[in-house]
Amino acid sequence: MEAVLAGVRELLPVLRERAQETEDRRALDPETVKALAETGFFRLLQPTRFGGHEAHPLTFLTGVREIASACGSTGWVASVVGVHAWQLALFPDRAQQEVWGDDTGTRMSSSYAPTGKIQRVDGGYRVTGRWSFSSGCDHATWVLLGGIVPPGEDGTPADFKTFLLPAADYIIEDVWHTVGLRGTGSNDIVVDGAFVPEHRSLSFNDTARCVCPGQEQNPGPLYRIPYASIFSYAITTPIIGMATGAYRAHVEYTRERVRASYIGVKAAEDPHSQVRVAEAAGDIDSAWFALQVNMRELMELTTAGTKLPMPLRLRVRRDQVRGTELSIRAVDRLFESSGGRALRTGTPIQRFWRDAHSGRVHAINDPERALSMFGRGEFGMPLNDAMV
To answer: Which residues does UniProt call coiled coil (predicted)?
Structure first.
């Protein structure tokens, strides 16, 4: 897997150079996606039986952090598109074959908020509606959409599911005009009464229980980690990467910056600047360290065949939202200490600042939900949430 990371690192100067262009075009350059694919990055979480690497999640997340440190939008798309290979491995084998059978390099985008209408029909579901924020959808030929299945007439309870649809079943509407993550092309997916067979659906309850149909063909420990653990870290890691990129840009800039209010005095000599850099570095390191510890423990337990304890799963979500919070705090501190020239369009500091704050508003980063779950667990109260 080091070869994949080495390939990613070789691309960083190009991604850094393209960052403003990516923002201006409001989507990744196809050449960027092609170059990332050629490193093997999108195969890191893909099952080996389809030519994937079935790598340790930390290898994938390390690559995400590196990419996002060069370009926030590219890191975001790489992460959320790259993690879908892991989720598809949980679907019934028939769905996996339909996506990867002819082309193992096929990619998927997603939009999980259940904003559409789902109707039970013979053999599957009728799906209709509009789903927003499908990052990287222009570079994918399938989409994963979240939806609530209403109770059945036979007493079957309601369910929250992910539905897998090919590009022929939806259209993409270009609506992505934003202040941050502008290069992610996170446009709307519109579906008009598409039929989705049962085998192309996956219950969030199954992913929470870590018991999914795809584990029969993909029994490895990677595919026995909770969805909430993998997916939430795929959202927080790009933000840690953006904070890392902002830190590097700030340090490089501050080494040569002369304070206008103190003629001839370099900003690097200001003890307040030194303290802010130390605080930002500590926050970024803390966010990344907790993520690493938790992911290693998850993989160690699943590799040993041990059931994942709920306190660990709750800690993962606690540290995930705290990791986002620490990264945002670091970016804010660096931005505030960068001076007025950092406001100029095209500078990396302001772009990382906008991108990180835009990533923060993703629903999975809401601290109250995750921290409340952790508190309930500590107090011995019942938990009923699939996102843990």
So the answer is: none
The residues pairing with 281 across neighbouring beta strands, listed in sequence order, are none
What is the residue type of 373?
M
Global model pTM greater than 0.90: yes
- What pLDDT is attached to residue 88? 98
Residues β-bridged to residue 142: 108, 166
pLDDT tens digits, one per residue of 222-249 = 999 999 999 999 999 999 999 999 999 9
Give the tens place of pLDDT for each residue, 119-165. Answer: 999 999 999 999 999 999 999 999 999 999 999 878 789 999 999 99
Domains observed in the chain: 2-88 (1.10.540.10), 107-203 (2.40.110.10), 225-378 (1.20.140.10)
CA 210 vs. chain centroid, Å, equals 20
Distance of alpha carbon 349 from alpha carbon 50, whole angstroms: 40
Q: For residues 246-283, b (16+ Cβ closer than 10 Å) or e, as one string? A: bbbbbeebbeebebeeeeeeebbebeebeebbeebbeb
Residue 325 to residues 318, 321, 352, 360, Cα–Cα distance (Å): 11, 6, 15, 8
pLDDT at position 262: 55
Q: What's the N-to-C CA distance of the chain in angstroms?
A: 28
Provide the token pair at 249. 């840009």
Which backbone phi and psi does 169 adopt, to 5 degrees?
-95, 5
Secondary structure class of 372 (helix, strand, coil): helix
- Note the helical H segments in the chain: 2-25, 30-39, 57-70, 72-82, 84-88, 93-100, 204-209, 227-256, 271-303, 310-336, 348-360, 367-378
Interhelix angle 72-82/348-360, rounded to 10 degrees, is 40
User: Hey, what amino acid is at 181?
Assistant: L
Q: What is the mean pLDDT of residues 190-213?
A: 97
Distances (CA, A) of 110 to 140, 162, 262, 344: 9, 9, 51, 33
296-315 in b/e form (b: 16+ CB < 10 A) is eebbebbeeeeebeeeebbb
Please name which of 24, 55, 95, 10 lies closest in space to residue 223, comparing C-alpha atoms: 55
Average pLDDT estimate for 72-81: 98
